[in-house]
Amino acid sequence: MKRFECVPNFSEGRRVEVIQAVRRAAEGVPGARVLDLESNADHNRSVLTLAGEGEALVEAAYRATEKALELIDLNHHQGGHPRMGAMDVVPFVPLGEATMEEAVALARKLGERLVRQLSLPVYFYAKAARRPEREDLARVREGGYEGLREAAVRDPARAPDLGGPQLHPTGGAVAVGARPVLVAYNIYLTTPDVAIAKRISRSLRGRDGGLSEVKALGFMIQERNRAQVSMNMTDYRRTPLHRAFALVREEARRYGTAIEESEIVGLVPEDALLDAAEDSLQLNRFDRANLLERRLAEGGAPAPAEGEYADGSLRAFVEALAARKPTPGGGSAAAVAAAMGAALGLMVLRYSSPPGELPPEGAKMQERLTTLEKTLLDGVDGDVRAYDQVRSKRLRPKEGPVTEEARQAYRSALRHAAEVPLAAAGACQETLALLDELAPRVKPVMVSDLTTARALLRAGLEGALANAEINVGSLRELGEEPSDLVGELDRLRPRA
């Protein structure tokens, strides 16, 4: 079952009975779950977060829009946040294995239904946009309800994608789209001067030369008597929260003010906050798999210790490979690929003769392939240990004078870190040569297995050589010319 998030934003943040009525309309749909509801009186806006199956979310978003249209009249609506509709924005967000293309299809389906059944004009935005200029929601909503009401009729370039061109008389129009996960992030300043918040917002916005993936506006929050920098972080991986926070703090200092506090509106991915924590605490080698809650959620199975990946499960290795830490890395992955290639070669060899009847040359090849497979598997953890040695011996002039003993220890670590992948590359090359010998005896049904084995070994060879070249380059930067290692690289490179 593929799951999606849907985040309807509607233009009411003050009347509790209206806010709750819209929520109830959405939560009555089987297969869709209300995760969160955030309201702001100064913005006069609420954000509803739903999650579930695609068809159920379309139904829930439709019902919420229908109720908002019934209870909200934009002709009598005032608030600090830009808006063009009673139900202003409805984005679909793919989760897990769901794709953006599937999210776009859901957006289109909802949009067509809103026009057909509610006569509500629709603008498609973000990844669902039908025109490039409408990928940016701010451009779609420019002028707000009052401005768009006139522009949509007068200017064909501003007309809705579906319905219209006249807007709904009380509900305006809705923007329906598909996008990645977005983090709504606000920062309160220690001043009520909204002009400062607006100047800071301008310096933040990506379209104005600030941070990419940041949309920002300045507001006055009357109930707190504070100016607010309100941001949409459209890709927290490319522009993390802590980077935006640091820039706001720096800009606020220029204007003689400071940050009072910040807040997240709605739900936030765990990794977005962990990015900020790792940066603030300088957890440069922190493995998120070691979080207590994550380990408990996985059933308490311990992650493999560094240096034990070859004896663990494939799933554990792949998850460790994807983690935000330096090991295991490309060298270990290359060794795993090559070891699988050698194992496939062994399988093909064993199927080349009747069970238990390998000829003498076949038995000899089997023995050698078994040894090479073990050598490659040893390289999985050998690469991890070699890199850890380099990291521990790295020269750190800022911590004090670097001794000749420290330089020599670092050179030795770098040399070993080159030797490990070179050994793997040599094993790859020898295994490929053995498979070349085997090829004429392979049964037709096994050709695809032999092809896969060769491809895995070539990938392992190329990755191992790239890993070795990096460490040879580091040795050269220290003034050493490792001619023996360079010679081995030259010998092995042609096969890659």
Molecular structure report:
This protein is of the alpha+beta class. The protein has 3 domains: 3-178, Formiminotransferase, N-terminal subdomain (Formiminotransferase-cyclodeaminase, Chain B, domain 1, 2-Layer Sandwich), CATH 3.30.990; 183-281, Alpha-Beta Plaits (2-Layer Sandwich), CATH 3.30.70; 326-495, Formiminotetrahydrofolate cyclodeaminase monomer, up-and-down helical bundle (Four Helix Bundle (Hemerythrin (Met), subunit A)). The protein is built from 15 helices and 11 strands. The protein has helices spanning 16-27, 54-71, 100-118, 137-140, 144-154, 194-204, 241-254, 270-281, 292-297, 314-322, 330-351, 360-393, 404-438, 447-477, 483-492; strands at 3-6, 9-10, 32-40, 45-53, 87-95, 122-126, 174-178, 183-189, 214-221, 226-233, 259-265. The strands form 2 sheets. Strands 1, 2, 3, 4, 5, 6 and 7 form a 7-stranded mixed sheet that branches. The longest helix is centred in the C-terminal third of the chain and has 35 residues, at 404-438. The two termini are 41 Å apart.
